[in-house]
Amino acid sequence: MAMNKPEFESLDQMAGVTASALAKAAAGSAFHLFQDRQFRQLADLEQLSQTEQDRIFNELIVAFIVLIMLALEAPDLRIPGEFRDYCAVLNKKIPKAHIDELRHLGVEKKHLKTWKKLIDIRYKEYARDRHDVRAAAMQIESSEKGLDMEGLSKIQMLVPVQAVAIGCHHHICRSRTEGRDELFKLTLKSLSKFYVEIRVRFEGGTITPLTRARVALKGILRRMGQKK
């Protein structure tokens, strides 16, 4: 009896297909947030030029793409050690997958180069910001109830999504973030939902630690509301 031909001939091919699916999921989630009535109201989109609206939409797409990349390289991602090499390959393919999709849609070459540069800049920026986010979270957690292993675990898990949300909000608002906490909370909520879905997918459906992280995130949002 003939053997069925495997769906993928190599890990590299599988990573390419997976990267394409993840990049499309990122763009879809960004579009969903961009079209959200509350987001559009809080971002004053209807008062902005089409060019400025496009800029904000692009920042959202890049934020979701970079969030996948940071999630895949998170040290606390609960995957077998041998799977990390595959994730490293996959990580590098995600920006290219998005650019390939844009090329397929007919986007001009000069704009593709701009997209590549923007993703690279934001990845480096948000990856760098993780250190400040982690330090600030540890300081807050320690001042409120003291740090323990569970607290440290939740902080570590939330660092990527918080770093991306803070940076994305900063760029959406062109650094004028004062009085725009509700816009930040909505952006953080959307990114967090996507982040949990990505981690659950790669961790094989293990959601208990992620559930605790979501509870911690709700605490952060609640404290932000109390500071008003």
What would you note in describing this structure?
This protein is mainly α and 228 residues long. 78% of the residues lie in helices and 0% in strands. The protein contains eight helices and no strands. It is globular and about 50 Å long. Residues 1-6 and 206-217 have low confidence and may be disordered.
Annotation keywords:
disordered N terminus, globular, 78% helix
Mean pLDDT: 82
For the secondary structure, the number of strands is 0
Number of helices: 8
List the secondary-structure elements in sequence, H or E.
HHHHHHHH
Give the termini separation.
70 Å
Query: Radius of gyration over alpha carbons?
Result: 19 Å
Helix fraction, binned, reads over 70%
What amount of the residues lies in strands? under 5%
Low-confidence stretches: 1-6, 206-217
- Sheet having the most strands: none
Class from helix and strand fractions: mainly alpha
- Principal-axis shape: globular
In short:
With 228 residues, the protein is mainly α.
Question: Mind sketching the topology for me?
Answer:
Layout: H1 11-35, H2 37-42, H3 50-72, H4 83-104, H5 109-145, H6 149-172, H7 181-202, H8 208-226
